[in-house]
Amino acid sequence: MIRGAAVHATAAITDAALLQALPHAPSAGRRTLRALLRAITDRRGLGWAPAGGRPASLAAALGAFAGAESLAVRVLATSLRLRIAAVALDHPELTGDPMLNRLVEAAAADRDLEAVRALRALLRDRGAVRVLSQLAPVFGEVLALRALLDENPLNDATAWLIATGTGYATADPVTGMSNRAVAVLDRGEGAARRVEPAEAESARLATKGSLLGFLGNISVIGTTGRVLIQSVEGPDGVVRHVVQAPGMRTGRPDHDSPQDLLGAFSSAVLAASPYSRALAKAVADYGLPEGAELALIGHSAGGAAVMNLAQDPAFCARHTVTHAIAVGAPVDFKRPADPGTWVASVTNQHDIVPTLDGQGAGGCFDLHPDWYVVDYSDATHLFPLCHSIDRYLANIAADLPEARDHIDGRLAPYRGPVVRSQVYRLFDHPPEPEGFPFLTVPTHAVPGPGGRVELPIRCQDGGALTAYFAADPAVAAALLEGTGLGPAVRVAGRAVVAVHAAWNRRTSVGVHRELHVGIVVPGPWRARGPLGWYDLVRGADRRRSGLFLAGSVVDTAVVAALAPRLWGGEPSLLPLEFGLATGVAHITAGASGAGEWLLVLGGRLGPGLPVSERDLVGYARAAGTTLRSCVRARGRALLHPAPRLRLTVAPGSPHPLAHLLRDLGLDGARPLLCVSATARRTLRDAAVPVPTT
Amino acid sequence: MRRHPARRSARRPVDPASITAHAVVLETDARTLAECAERLRGITERLEAGGVAPRWLRQAVNAHLAACATAAADLATAAAHLRHYAAGVRPAPH
Question: What's the domain of life for this entry (chain B) (predicted)?
Fold first, then answer.
């Protein structure tokens, strides 16, 4: 009302009609303008009160900079102080604590320096977490009070919104920075992908619908960027569905999930956010029948997101949202699109998160007479502990039996056995297919030992170690005789032999390990001159040189069966161990525990230079022809120029590979250099015959 | 520069009704402010009677009451001037 009077007086004095009429009655006109000016600037009356319209707002801002206040601001400040005093009646710790009291009083008296000193003293004495927790019941009021009384005009609108309960805080009450400016950073159309929960998680999911069961599920799913949708068969035999949305993920403020800090913020202050859009995508994928009944339950940012979903008219046109239950969430200014949606909000008065929209325990407006609102306080004043889903769960289970029973009563149609559960991982944007674009290639099926197998083999995640040794040149030459692949590449007169081991952790043919021993050869039509060495590091598509594969070991029957097609060899099927950690490698072929080991390549890798992981080109002889195979690789690797590894062959092992390694003089040898890659992706297709003569 | 006598006499017509409308609004606001002061006084007395009024409340409210009274008087004065002004302005020809 007071502000309205100021707006009206300002409108009168700025009305062009008054100035146009001035020549008709100049004396009366001047007196009128003087009287109006006095009405909006009288320090003993309305104060410095130009209001409404841009010029008036500018004048008000200039006055604020100069420390001039309006009567409306002074009355509102008194109202906020009174609200703080009222909350303090229920929370005596606010005024009983001299340090907290000093801060509140300083904020109310517009003593900035004193307020800062009081806050510093509090932070020093209690730490930020305890201060926030203790102030939580009046957090909005203290911020609004300070925003009203400081000289910063940018935060005044927020202060008015908080103080009058007419809308969510549109800006940071301290700096005046627009919330929308922050929220706009959280972009994305939202996406959801089905994921399987871990076995331990599945075992802990509720098998019957209830408030505690659903909140327990949110606790099980955790703040991991995932949500849960369940179907329950109600007592009437009708299957209904429940969306259960956890809060924000900790860590980086913005990552690929909408359950991040920015997502929480935008869910709170905007009507739609990537989180709610991703939730809608999850519900669409879940495949609900038209008009199916749906309950939405969310904690923290999840509560704001489910309320956004409930206030989306398009979503509510497709589904019947019967319940929306927000726990520890800032939802005061959300409005369900369907008036039939029953809304419950449960908040701990020491939890700051629900006050992010500016309305806390000190709010004196009944914003939702039709909602079921539980705003309680427990002995745990420590934030973020009092915000955790487990704390809310414990409070609802033990301290709020009436509220629990009431909400459970309203959830009666959902209180039946769970007949379906599906976990979704949410994203801001639809995620790229794994391995895109490197592993996005055409595939073809070939016969395998257990059915058809797709080639090329796509490995999403793997590791590899290639160790280059100096070997007996005569033995190498004997092995290469007649292959047409040229003499072995030599270093200081010795043939270069590579031992390549890989652990393919996630592939289109399952996890498998492999080990190859190959002589480095220039290949048929070998590059000559200076390009000869350069060719060794070129991509597989342009490389002539490669490894003449003299022996291989794999640890799965599928790959062993595919080996003739993949690289042309007949590998041994033996257990393989592949260990590659920072600076250390340990590769074992054969059953090491049973005394039937074949070889061990292990030791320190030494310092490494970062390089790109290289492709592997292999040559093999099969049925009188030479086959060329490629493993295309992407990833980061380390080149170790001074490795301290050692290759040890099992003494007396009759295995052909053991014989080969001994003949090459590699038993007990240390490599010249090594290349290690702890994470890489690979593509391996069938080998192709190449004429070499 | 002196304006041409013919142009000086050709004053733009104005609508005194729009000025009067402002007067009406400000008179209403003046009354509302007085009522607002009364409500403020009532709330304070109730809080004091309940024994829950903070110590500083009476002094703050007294200041607000005085300001409301002054503001109401300022608005009433401005409204009176507006009415007088509107009466002195020639109506626009229809």
Answer: Bacteria
Distances from the Cα of B93 to the Cα of A18, A23, A167, B14, angstroms: 17, 17, 46, 9
DSSP string, A318-363: HSEEEEEEEES---TT---SSTT-EEEEEEETT-SGGGGGS--TT-
Beta bridge partners of A451: A448
Chain A nearest CA to B4, separation (Å):
16
Of A9, A160, A6, nearest in space to A70 by CA: A6
- Alpha-carbon distance A48 to A40, whole Å? 6
* ipTM score of complex: 0.84
Top residue of B26, B36, B52, B59 to mutate, by most chain A CBs within 10 Å, is B26
Q: What are the chain A neighbours of B40 within 8 Å (beta carbons)? A: 75
**In 3D, which of A141, A146, A138 has the Cα closest to residue A89?**
A138
Residue A11 vs residues A3, A23, A198, B89, B94: alpha-carbon distances, Å: 12, 20, 65, 19, 26
Neighbour count for residue A409 (Cβ, 10 Å): 10
Contact A34, B24 (CB under 8 A): no
pLDDT in tens, A157-192: 666 666 666 555 555 555 555 555 555 666 778 999
Q: Walk me through the domains of chain A, giving residue ranges and CATH numbers.
A: 2-65 (no CATH), 71-177 (no CATH), 191-427 (no CATH), 454-690 (2.40.400.10)
The H or E element spanning position B39 is helix B16-50
Is the minimum CB–CB distance between B48 and chain A shorter than 8 Å? no
Yes or no, beta carbons of A45 and B77 under 8 Å apart: no
Chain B residues touching residue A42 (CB < 8 angstroms): 70-71, 74
